[in-house]
Design goal:
Blueprint lengths: L15 E3 L5 E3 L19 H8 L4 H5 L10 H17 L7 H17 L3 H13 L7 H18 L10 H7 L8
Antiparallel strand pairs: 1-2
Helix pairs in contact: 3-6, 3-7, 4-5
The structure holds flavin-adenine dinucleotide (FAD).
Length: 179
């Protein structure tokens, strides 16, 4: 869940919103609002989102949203990292100038349009301080691993050993379990 609940001109966070009947409705403390001022599905975990809606059983909350529902912050994140690391895995070892330009532009745009806006703001900040490395597959793969570790640290998760990014995302593990 995005811990960051800072104020943003277009999308303020709040501890209450006004419900349809005009009465103020209290929000869970960590709820991040979207640009429309409503609770943001892709910025919150399903558990936090549904504790506001109170519609789902405990078991469903523990396993995240049903597979045919809009993604929460975790499902969106897992799918997005899969795409991003897979792009690094298929990136050329010696990319041309235009291939380098394409991925640089893609990463810049990705960081601007990522659906969890609080995640996107932090990712843009990371990219401003750590320019994307696109000169080779190895450099790009390691940069992406570091970017992912930055989010892992923020969320209190274990850091990934970036010397193993290729085994995880390109070749499969040396023990052969992916073959
Ligand atoms: C750009 C971006 C920013 C995000 N920002 C936030 C945020 O601010 N707040 C928030 O709550 N969530 C954020 N997320 C989502 C968050 O990173 C996780 O995706 C989500 O919490 C689900 O985590 P997970 O434990 O299932 O595994 P994930 O972190 O999604 O990782 C998926 C798999 O990738 C592998 N892996 C883990 N770390 C690395 C690494 N460093 N390099 C290579 N492979 C690795 C592991 O095998 C892991 O199982 C963000 C996601 C993205 C793409």
């Amino acid at each position: 869940m995005a811990e960051d609940t800072r104020e943003n001109e277009a999308a303020p966070t709040a501890t209450s919103i006004t419900s349809k009947d005009g009465r103020p409705k209290k929000l869970p403390k960590r709820m991040v609002l979207g640009k429309d001022g409503k609770p943001c599905r892709s910025c919150n975990s399903f558990a936090d989102f549904t504790s506001q809606k109170k519609l789902i059983t405990k078991g469903a909350i523990a396993s995240g949203p049903p597979s045919d529902c809009p993604p929460d912050v975790e499902q969106l994140g897992r799918s997005s990292w899969t795409l991003l690391h897979s792009i690094t895995a298929t990136y050329p070892t010696n990319p041309s100038t235009s291939e380098q330009r394409n991925v640089s532009q893609f990463m810049g745009l990705f960081s601007k349009i990522y659906p969890c806006w609080v995640c996107a703001e932090d990712f843009q900040e990371f990219m401003a301080k750590n320019q994307v490395r696109v000169e080779s597959r190895d450099a790009f793969g390691k940069w992406m691993c570091e970017a992912h570790n930055e989010v892992n640290r923020k969320l209190g998760k274990t850091e990934f050993d970036c010397s193993k990014w290729e085994e995880r995302w390109r070749t499969g593990w040396k023990d052969g379990r992916c073959d």
